[in-house]
From TrEMBL:
Belongs to the sodium:solute symporter (SSF) (TC 2.A.21) family. GO terms for biological process: sodium ion transport. One of its GO terms (molecular function) is symporter activity. This is Na+/proline symporter. It comes from Maribacter stanieri. Signal peptide: none annotated. It catalyses: L-proline(in) + Na(+)(in) = L-proline(out) + Na(+)(out).
Length: 446
């Protein structure tokens, strides 16, 4: 085993053990499912840090670096467009809590659209959580060995088990507490990487980075506009995000979400600079890995540690959200024992695709299109709508998602060219159709 590999194993085991010993022990369901510690909910800083780091997952920063490599800084800005999701969710949830007195997304859906709507919605988000497990752990595996090697599989199994261990202790309390620690680590490590990239040896200036890429549809703007369109539905199918919208007071929640929107986008743009540097050096492949190797062992380990930190924060949030979904939202068993066994179940089920050599699909694009039907449901949450409106909109959204996956969308309705053109226009036409089918039953009833 090489020296780098030994250090990588050391980082995974040491960081997980530290988080395990620091994690609070949940003694009741309020601590486990709602992160209430000493009768206090998380404050603005804690909630904001938790939101940002649980969304800056290993897969997303890998994508940001690769988009920087493909499109220059324009790629980073395009991917950062998804962080509008925080602002949208923050404002909608704030109003839902203040004016609708809703205590969760499931509470809103059951009271407005009934039990069937809750079941369909729960299937959508359970699928999302299931995908989050394997798609993030596969990024970790790729740093330890090629897909299919024993080092690749063992690193994934060990990483998943260690993350599960500390989140089993405190549930949502563990998740939010460790998120703040992980956010601090992420900031320090990102600063180290940026100082290296802009150091004396590289001759790369901030001005040069800012001027990379071309602001055209073909070179990044397709993705930017698709991300902005998806931001009106995407956050609502992510319980990792929405669960945090009902923990603290409405005012604290709104502030946290708005700050997370701005700072999260900045973090993604800064991380994409790794890809911009890789582009300036004519590198190919996975931008973060190649830059790490070019700068030597220490920077490779720093990048590796960032991946471990961000993947762990997403994974622990996924486990805690899944247990809350089953225990509280679906009311299957509001006990610590049930909550902990639910986490074990999603950890095991979510790891199975790793052994089937699943592709790391861009969870942001495919699943983001699948749920565009949620746009009118949450944006017009206050307006009256019959139950059929929910089902029609969700069904049409899923239909457009399948059109994207199987490449069945008519080309004469795609008005730009280049990568992500079909993503943009399928989302554009899809959202228009979802709005129509959501509103039509209301018109008929009138």
């Amino acid at each position: 085993m090489t020296e780098v590999k030994i250090w990588q194993w050391g980082l995974i085991i040491a960081s997980s053990l530290v988080l395990f010993f620091l994690s609070p022990w949940a003694k009741d369901t309020n601590q486990f499912f709602k992160a209430v510690q000493k009768k206090k909910a998380p404050n603005t800083f804690m909630l904001m840090g938790s939101l940002i780091i649980s969304w800056i997952f290993a897969k997303s920063i890998t994508n940001a670096a690769n988009l920087g490599l493909d499109f220059g800084i324009v790629g980073g800005v395009a991917y950062a467009g998804y962080y509008l999701s925080f602002a949208v969710a923050g404002i909608v949830i704030y109003k839902m809590r203040l004016h609708g007195k809703y205590t969760s997304i499931h509470h809103f859906l059951s009271s407005k659209f009934g039990k069937t709507a809750v079941t369909i919605f729960s299937i959508l988000i359970a699928f999302r959580l299931f995908n989050e497990v394997w798609s993030n752990t596969m990024v970790i595996g790729s740093y330890f060995g090629d897909m299919g090697t024993s080092a690749y599989y063992w690193s994934i199994l060990v990483f998943t088990a260690l993350t599960l261990a500390y989140v089993l202790k405190g549930g949502m309390s563990s998740s939010i507490f460790t998120d703040v620690v992980q956010m601090g680590l992420f900031s320090i490590l990102l600063a180290v990487i940026l100082f290296t990239i802009f150091g004396k040896e590289t001759d790369l200036s901030v001005t040069e980075v800012a001027s990379t890429g071309i602001w055209s549809f073909e070179t990044g703007l397709n993705l930017l506009f698709a991300a902005l369109l998806q931001s009106f539905s995407y956050p609502f199918h992510d319980p990792v995000l929405t669960d945090r919208g009902f923990i603290s007071s409405p005012k604290v929640t709104l502030k946290s979400f708005l700050w997370a929107s701005v700072l999260g986008a900045i973090c993604i743009i800064l991380f994409s600079i790794i890809g911009v540097y890789a582009q300036s050096q004519g590198m190919q492949g996975q931008a973060a890995v190649q830059v790490g190797k070019a700068f030597g062992t220490i920077i490779l380990l720093v990048i590796n540690f960032i991946m471990i930190t961000s993947a762990a924060s997403t994974l622990d949030s996924t486990f805690s959200s899944f247990s809350k979904l089953l225990a509280l939202d679906l009311n299957l068993g509001n006990t610590l024992k049930f909550g902990r066994w639910s986490m074990v179940a999603i950890a095991v089920l979510g790891t199975i695709p790793v052994f089937l050599d699943a592709e790391i699909l861009s969870a942001t694009t495919i699943s983001g299109t699948m749920v565009i039907g949620l746009t009118p449901i949450f944006i017009f949450w206050k307006d009256k709508a019959p139950k059929i409106s929910f089902h029609l909109s969700v069904f049409v959204g899923l239909l457009f998602g399948f059109l994207l996956i199987f490449n069945w969308f008519p080309e004469n309705m795609i008005f730009t060219t280049g990568k992500y053109a079909s993503l943009l226009w399928i989302n554009f036409w899809g959202i228009i159709c979802c709005l129509f089918v959501y509103i039509i039953p209301t018109w008929i009833k009138k």
